[in-house]
Amino acid sequence: MGKFCEVCHKGLMHGNNVSHSVRRTHRVWAPNTQRVRVLVGGTPKHLYVCTRCLRSGKVTRAL
Questions:
Q1: CA distance linking residue 53 with residue 8, whole number of Å
Q2: Which residue in 3, 7, 26, 47 could disulfide with 53, CB within 3.0 to 4.6 Å?
Q3: What does the alpha-carbon distance between residue 16 and residue 19 come to, in Å, rounded to a whole number?
Q4: Number of domains observed in the structure of the chain
Q5: DSSP structural state of residue 57
Q6: How far apart (Å, rounded) are the C-alpha atoms in residues 7 and 27?
Q7: Residue 1 to residues 4, 20, 59, Cα–Cα distance (Å)
Q8: Which residues contact 10 (CB under 8 A, 6 or more apart)?
Q9: Region 18-40 average pLDDT
Q10: What is the pLDDT of residues 39-59, one digit of tens each?
Q11: Burial 19-29 (b: 16+ CB within 10 A, else e)
């Protein structure tokens, strides 16, 4: 999967896992991106788009 959304540019987020004993280890959260065919300027293209952009209708899918 792509690492960022090509529509809203949502990318990786960094933070910590915190255990019960409050030890911290680094981790990364990735957005849920899908490779879909969308219409860009009237022509279909493959883009990595996050599911929030797909659901909100920010892109029009090419079927």
A1: 7
A2: 7
A3: 9
A4: 1
A5: T
A6: 25
A7: 9, 32, 18
A8: 4, 31, 50, 52
A9: 96
A10: 999 899 999 999 999 999 999
A11: eeeeeeeeeee
Name every residue whose Cβ is closer than 8 Å to that of residue 41 and which is 6 or more positions away in sequence. none
pLDDT at res. 16 = 98
DSSP codes, 4-44: S-TTT----EEEEEE-TT--EEEEEE---EEEEEEEETTEE
Q: What is the CATH number of the domain that holds 10?
A: 2.30.170.40
Residue 1 in this model has a pLDDT that exceeds 90: no
pLDDT value of position 37: 96
Q: Could you say which DSSP state residue 58 is in? A: S
- Name the helix (H) or strand (E) containing 54: helix 51-56
